[in-house]
């Protein structure tokens, strides 16, 4: 078959991966509970509280060709798993980030054409809004500032075009650094948005990944015959949000100016070709 796969290979910058040996169970974590003061002149009190959440892993079916070269088989399985996990993660934090944006009636949207109308420098305004979003998460989420930013390539390049004259810095992996936040590019993220967040431990609020492992700590697969050359591998995982208000660890920034620019280009093409 193929070499055993350790779940450690899915460790990443966005979320914590926890290995469990049961397809369902209870996970404990610590959050903060805010209690309003009975005295209007005194601030609310905040105290840690131990909570738990029941989780149930779901199946991921992976078609594999066991006649392929071992290394090809390994990477085929790896990318199928990591892409599905990231797709679930981005989907969940997109919803949570929008919830944070709506519930607090605040946004750090980056609309360059509107920034220009206010006679502000677009590049510096972009940096300020990203930093403000990070500080907002630190204050509201009570864990710390944002650690990462994520958008797809088109959104990233569009924003970067306004910052080419700034003294930008990059880390050893060539990711743009905004203060202490690494800017990642992933095509699984929707157009015209930037996701802002941090990687917390499983004992803290946030979105975490759980993967079923065997007694030796390898990912547990079940094999089902499919055809002569192909079988289905089944593994189990879950992407779960934890906390009283898990959305406070994430924020969604809209960058709808990109759609506006595409609309202008389309109209120009129509004018040129008389469409």
List keywords for this structure.
about 280 residues; phage-related protein like fold; 5 helices; single chain; about 30% strand
Tell me what you see in this structure.
With 275 residues, the chain is of the alpha+beta class. It has one domain: phage-related protein like fold. Helix content is 31%, strand content 31%. It is built from five helices and 13 strands. The protein has helices at residues 70-103, 112-117, 122-141, 153-160, 257-272, and strands at residues 17-20, 24-35, 45-56, 58-65, 148-151, 169-170, 176-178, 181-185, 193-197, 206-212, 222-225, 230-242, 250-254. The strands form three sheets. It has a six-stranded mixed sheet. Strands 1, 4, 10, 11 and 12 form a five-stranded mixed sheet that branches. A two-stranded antiparallel sheet has the order 2-3. A hairpin with a 2-residue loop joins β7 (176-178) and β8. The radius of gyration is 22 Å and the shape is flat. The N and C termini lie far apart (57 Å). The mean pLDDT is 89.
């Amino acid at each position: 078959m193929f070499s055993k796969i350790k779940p450690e290979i899915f460790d990443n910058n966005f979320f914590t991966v926890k290995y469990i040996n049961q397809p369902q169970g209870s996970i404990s974590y610590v959050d903060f509970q805010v209690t309003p003061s009975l005295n209007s002149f005194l601030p609310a009190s905040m105290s840690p509280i131990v909570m738990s959440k029941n989780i149930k892993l779901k199946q991921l079916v992976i078609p594999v060709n066991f006649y392929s070269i071992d290394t090809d088989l390994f990477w085929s399985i790896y990318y199928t798993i990591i892409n599905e996990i990231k797709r679930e993660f981005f989907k969940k934090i997109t919803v949570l980030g929008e919830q944070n944006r709506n519930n607090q009636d605040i946004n750090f949207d980056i609309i360059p054409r509107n920034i220009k109308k206010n006679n502000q420098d677009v590049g510096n305004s972009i940096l300020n809004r990203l930093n403000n979003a990070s500080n907002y998460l630190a204050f509201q989420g009570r864990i710390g500032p944002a650690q990462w930013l994520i958008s797809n390539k088109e959104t990233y390049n569009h924003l970067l075009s306004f910052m080419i004259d700034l003294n930008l810095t990059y880390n050893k992996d060539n990711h743009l650094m905004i203060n202490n936040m690494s800017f990642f590019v992933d095509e699984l993220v929707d157009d015209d948005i930037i996701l802002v967040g941090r990687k917390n431990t499983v004992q803290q609020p946030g979105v975490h990944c759980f993967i079923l492992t065997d007694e030796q700590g390898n990912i547990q697969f079940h094999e089902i015959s499919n055809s002569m050359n192909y079988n289905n591998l089944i593994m189990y995982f879950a992407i779960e949000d934890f906390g009283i208000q898990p959305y406070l660890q994430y924020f969604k920034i809209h960058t709808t100016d990109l759609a506006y620019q595409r609309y202008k280009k389309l109209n120009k093409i129509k004018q040129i070709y008389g469409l």
